[in-house]
Specification:
The protein is mainly alpha-helical. The protein has one domain. It is 67% helix and 0% strand. The chain is built from 4 helices and no strands. The chain has helices spanning 2-13, 22-43, 47-50, 52-60. The protein is elongated, with a radius of gyration of 14 Å. The termini are far apart.
Length: 70
Amino acid sequence: MNYFISAVRDAQAQGLIDAPDPVAKAKALFSCYQGTMAQARIQNDIEVLREFKQVAKDVLGVKQTEAVPS
């Protein structure tokens, strides 16, 4: 759990997410992670895990970045 808190605090400090309460946001993310793992085990389906990346972005409220033209 401490890893999640640290990661959320770092992302907040870098301006990547809006997390006024990083501990609460980390707990929400950790709960989603545990639920996703349980669901994947129950369904015996790894695709559930592959979809977690988007779920995590939604939970964290990841700010969209504009692509820099090359």
